[in-house]
């Protein structure tokens, strides 16, 4: 018996379901306290945290790592003297764990608890606002732990490439050094510097409240907080905090004025790590819809150009990512991938070609529609858990990035056409000043680059760490 077979066709995608992001409410009682809240009653949980607009970008020169160390002590150190109470232990009595985080732009400490333990949660939030008790012994233990972690990180090939790329793009500006600091910077941190950090944290921090709580009760609690001194500008505690965005040297000043390729020699490495990119733009300086679409089309989704070309078509990489970092200062645009050593030069040529094409030719209608659908379809995932909601609220609360909260709404993405997106790509992607860093066995990599006529220079791990002036500028930029 013969059987008729219908032609194999992909199913037609269903219309995207309507979705509206939840509404954030901002609180500013007369005593200067600040809070951002989002009522979410689907689960009997609350999420509270303190969030301050001071992150690793504000580390003083020579004390790189201060914010990261302070964040750890906000969680672990006792309050109220040597015999004081540990917030970590208090959190455990609520069946919770403290969560800390440090970013370039902010530091936070928070926790989740059952809504039935709301009063105890407010007590823990109050305890966390008190400056930690830090002695020389406590600091020594914390620094020893972090120095070991940084030393281990410096042995990983991906970290070597990340650090060398940051140094190539930003020189000795804070963005040119690791987020969590340097071993040399950690060893110079003093107890008094931490006390100053905690004082500014207490005066600048705002509350993030999320979950099944009573908004009037939150308002009453905020009004009773006598230790809030008002919402300070990030630069109030440290004039070097906010990265420059004007004519003065800062992350907007290139460490190199033209494109260069650096090979960091790591003898015996099993593969190569490649980073390609340049200084990008500060958060809020460009339409967030353009950044979302460019990231998605170039290298953030499986169907992105770089992934399809490098992984699906050529099989030269397993994973590749590309995008613009969102920071208060001009963060980097970077393409990041691990490659088989023998294909390094081929991969670099393909990256350059795809970026050039995105700048010159408008994105075809079908590709642009697919990118929009990807962004719209994955958008609700950003609001799926308390952790993701809190991450969105942090950026909105401190960086005037409310446009990012709704950038993926279908009607907003549809309003950005292919011609406009191409103009954004031409303006934002700058191959003429792109830095390429390849970490791996230099002899094999350099042979390929010479074969393909790509000028390059070979450097060592020690030169990267020291910021050799002819390769990785040592000036404070």
Write the SSE topology.
Layout: E1 25-27, E2 35-39, E3 45-52, H1 66-76, H2 87-93, E4 99-102, E5 107-114, H3 118-129, H4 136-153, H5 157-170, H6 183-187, H7 191-204, E6 206-211, H8 215-223, E7 260-265, E8 272-279, H9 288-300, H10 305-313, E9 317-324, E10 332-339, H11 344-360, H12 365-378, H13 386-399, H14 402-405, H15 410-414, H16 418-428, E11 435-440, H17 442-451, E12 457-459, H18 461-466
Helix pairs in contact: 1-7, 9-12, 10-11
Structure description:
This protein has helices at 66-76, 87-93, 118-129, 136-153, 157-170, 183-187, 191-204, 215-223, 288-300, 305-313, 344-360, 365-378, 386-399, 402-405, 410-414, 418-428, 442-451, 461-466; strands spanning 25-27, 35-39, 45-52, 99-102, 107-114, 206-211, 260-265, 272-279, 317-324, 332-339, 435-440, 457-459. With 477 residues, it is an alpha+beta fold. The strands form 2 sheets. Strands 1-2-6-3-5-4 form a 6-stranded mixed sheet, with helices on both faces.
Outline the biggest β-sheet.
Answer: 6 strands, mixed
Residue windows where pLDDT falls under 50 for at least 5 positions? 227-249, 473-477
Order of helices and strands: EEEHHEEHHHHHEHEEHHEEHHHHHHEHEH
- Give helix % range: 40-55%
Contiguous helical run count: 18
Radius of gyration, taken over Cα atoms and rounded to an integer in Å: 24 Å
Spatial strand order of the main sheet: 1-2-6-3-5-4
- Total beta strands: 12
Q: How large a portion of the residues is in β-strands, by DSSP E?
A: 15-25%
The general outline is globular
The secondary structure category is alpha+beta
How is the quaternary structure best described?
single chain
Nearest-integer average pLDDT: 87
Distance between the termini: 78 Å
